[in-house]
Amino acid sequence: MKKMSYVLHNGPAHLGLDIGSVSVNTVLIDSEKNVVFDDYTRTKGDPLRTTAEVLAGLLSSVPCENIVSCSVTGTGGLLVASQLKAAFVNEIIAHAKAVEWFHPEVRTIIEMGGEDAKLILVDQKGTGELAVDDFAMNTLCAAGTGSFLDQQAHRLGYTIEEFSSLALRSETPPRIAGRCSVFAKTDMIHLQQGAVPDYEIIAGLCFAMARNLKSNIGKGKKFVPPVCFQGGVAANLGVRRAFESVLNLASGELIIPEHLFSMGAIGASLMSMENTQAMRAFHGIERLKDYIDNHVSAAKRLPPLSIREKEKEAGPGSETGKAGGAVRDGRIDVYLGLDVGSISTNVVLIDSHKNLVAKTYLMTAGRPLEAVQKGLSIIGEKWAGRVRV
């Protein structure tokens, strides 16, 4: 997300932080409740250090004394709040408060982040404020969340931005299990083996997420429009279309707020502004940096569990054996074997005596034809002109 310029000059501002499982969302709100700074930064497994870096960058242009309050929400917010001596605000309340300010006409809130999905049902009290009537969240399983979408996009070889736009090309999305990530992946593999286009599979995933939220998290609950869809997943055009279809929403009944990534942070800051007794002053980031130096930096970390591009393309690698078969015109007679699986593709050459001449192993990556072409190319580069198939 592009950072907004700080336009308050020397006026007071209220800081809001939403520490999620995959990102830190930071906002500054002026005394008129205008958002004057909005930042989305991925944590890459290190939320404390990411928070410190974002705040250090903010403080390079905003005097610390101008920040009159600091509020924190999110799954990872308690520790950050304690180190910043900030107010901690419940996620459900924070999201509802932000919607109350920007879209008071909303009656249903869907929030999808990297780790969890929330359904919040609200109604307007006599005072005009929105009250939370009911809410539900997913279990510890990450099926139907942003992390699941990220994983499948990576597996299919697309960026999450490409993933979003490709889903809109589909006219008949296939049915994919949305309740379990393992079952969803199995369905995807079967569809890939049936040569179903990637954009159809991607759209099927989007619809699976929408159906999962409606039937599991929203089981027995009524989705009263207008519906506000927020959180990182709300940026995905395919998921937006899926919710409009699954919830039978008319045009304009699905609202995507301008600050869809940062509604939690905005709501946390608004809560402090309206409850001066709970408001906590901002004391800078020195205490947080000390905690990182003494507790986080000293911890031993292993390399990230991710496949490097070379390994992704080539797998364990290629091997060459000894050939002892018949030789004609200076070339060895060989037999070509292909094993195209859902995960990997194997290409081998053997001679007339059943000796292994060459083999290569690479990931299928959802594209069996391309994997076979690549495997043959790898073999061809080493054995061109030396063998006859």
Explain this structure:
The chain folds into three domains: 13-97 and 262-296, ATPase, nucleotide binding domain (Nucleotidyltransferase, domain 5); 110-255, 2-Layer Sandwich (Nucleotidyltransferase, domain 5), CATH 3.30.420.40; 309-388, no CATH class. The chain is 36% helix and 24% strand. It is built from twelve helices and 16 strands. Strands 11, 12, 13, 14, 15 and 16 form a six-stranded mixed beta sheet that branches. Helix 3 crosses helix 9 (263-274) and helix 7 packs across helix 8. The protein is globular, with a radius of gyration of 26 Å.
Task: Describe this protein with a few key phrases.
single chain; Nucleotidyltransferase, domain 5; 3 domains; six-stranded mixed beta sheet; five-stranded mixed beta sheet; globular; disordered N terminus
Strand content: 15-25%
- In CATH, the architecture of the largest domain is 2-Layer Sandwich
- Structural class of the secondary structure composition? alpha/beta
Which CATH class of the largest domain is shown? Answer: Alpha Beta
The succession of helices and strands, N to C, reads: EEEHEHEHEEEHHHHEHEHHHEEEEEHE
Number of domain modules:
3
- Helicity, in percent? 25-40%
CATH homologous superfamily heading of the largest domain: ATPase, nucleotide binding domain
Largest sheet: 6 strands, mixed
- The average pLDDT is 86
Termini distance?
53 Å
CATH topology grouping of the largest domain: Nucleotidyltransferase, domain 5
Q: DSSP helix count? A: 12
Question: For the CA atoms, what is the radius of gyration?
Answer: 26 Å
